[in-house]
Amino acid sequence: MGDSILFTVPLEIRQLIYEYYLSFEHSDTICHERQWEAFLKYSKPLSAPLPSLMVTCKRIYIELRSDVHSTAVVQFIGPERFWPGLHIHTTVHGILRFERLHHLVMQVNEESLRGPVWFFLEAVAGKMCVLEHLTIDWEFTLRAEEHNENHKRRFLQALHSITSLRTIRINGCPRRSWRQAIEQEMIGTNVVIRIFRNRWWLP
User: Fold this and answer.
1) Cβ-based neighbours of 139, under 8 Å, separated by 6 or more
2) What highest taxon heads this organism's lineage (predicted)?
3) How do residues 140-161 score in pLDDT, each as one tens digit?
4) What pTM did the predictor assign?
5) Which of 81, 128, 134, 176 is found 20 to 30 A from 109 (Cα to Cα)?
6) Domain residues of the chain, as ranges?
């Protein structure tokens, strides 16, 4: 591969090619079921195959190795599917390790915010020491029940504790109370909040 035409273009162009190549599709999603202890201690790591391009030659591996592990998508479908065991849908290249993520996408609905999402974020926030970008892909649910305010507060505190965070992008239509609560929690930080009505990671 050393004489591949890929290496005749500037690195900046190759990086754009890599970015497109590493973008996720729903076919990449894997459903995992395990207890939180195993999930967080990596005794049973969440993993997916490395991109085939990455294993073609050492040079491409070196150029891709920082970006390939930097993004993950975690999907929450509904609380009834999480307990007592945890069923979690993840989209990732290679082994998911939260300490090397720069971008995390959480797909949630208002029912899952009653339990699994705050529990997940609270459990992994301390590990995400270089996370810069958080995307919350928000599915509006008319049948959602009243939230447990303690759960909501713990979710917001976990969000606030990610000190490396630079941007929060909210896609979809969260209830005004949730949007305002997140904005209020970020007052006094350097985190920029952006809200888009269109969702990115549609089911």
Assistant:
1) 107, 108, 109, 110, 172, 199, 203
2) Eukaryota
3) 766 555 556 777 888 899 999 9
4) 0.82
5) 128
6) 30-51+69-196
